[in-house]
Specification:
181 residues, alpha/beta, 5 helices, globular, oxidoreductase, Thioredoxin_domain, Peroxiredoxin, peroxidase, EC 1.11.1.26
Length: 181
């Protein structure tokens, strides 16, 4: 599995960005991750659309969208389902209709495989979360078993710590003192 300090892999994938007819899809590339505007990226993966735990996580990321935006951080959700399955799921699930971030389709499973998060038996993505800095470097990785949803507040807490570029003690939260050496 790719880890901290490694460059996020190059990719070009279709994503669902809207429910508006004719504007549903866009191509996202790894160029989107690298920028001079100091914008970070959180990319989170789920195993399958039309399941039970996954929409709870996606909805929670969406509820927290403003907190990520306030931290100059883009959100990208992803799975190995197709863009058409993503679109159908968004259209049919009340909690997913008004998503403010793209749902990336890794139908070929090539990006999940390159990241090392492809479950070997079913060939679906693990519940992986990557925090990527503005240079396209992975700064945090977390992977949950398929049956356990992640904690979005912890993703935000870690993002806050990384963005301080300082030493943050155990259980540190934004606004608290960092460590000085």
């Amino acid at each position: 599995m790719l880890t901290i300090g490694q460059k996020f892999p190059s990719f070009s994938k279709t994503a669902v960005v809207s429910l508006e007819k004719g504007k549903e899809f866009e191509t996202l590339t790894s160029d989107y991750l690298v920028n001079d505007d100091n914008v970070w990226t959180v990319m989170f993966w789920w195993p399958k659309d039309f399941t039970f735990v996954c929409p709870t996580e996606i909805a929670e990321f969406n509820k927290s969208y403003g907190e990520f935006r306030d931290r100059e951080t883009r959100l990208i959700g992803a799975s190995t389902d197709s863009e058409f399955v993503h679109l159908a799921w968004r259209n049919n699930h009340d909690d997913l209709r008004d998503l403010k971030f793209p749902m990336l389709a890794d139908t070929s499973k090539s990006l999940a495989e390159e990241l090392g998060i492809l479950e070997p038996n079913e060939k679906i993505a693990y519940r992986a979360t990557f925090i990527i800095d503005p240079q396209g470097v992975i700064r945090w990785v977390s992977v949950n078993d398929l049956s356990v949803g992640r904690n979005v507040k912890e993703v935000i807490r870690v993002l806050d710590g990384l963005q301080t570029d300082e030493l943050c003690p155990c259980n540190w939260e934004k606004g608290q003192e960092t460590l000085s050496v």
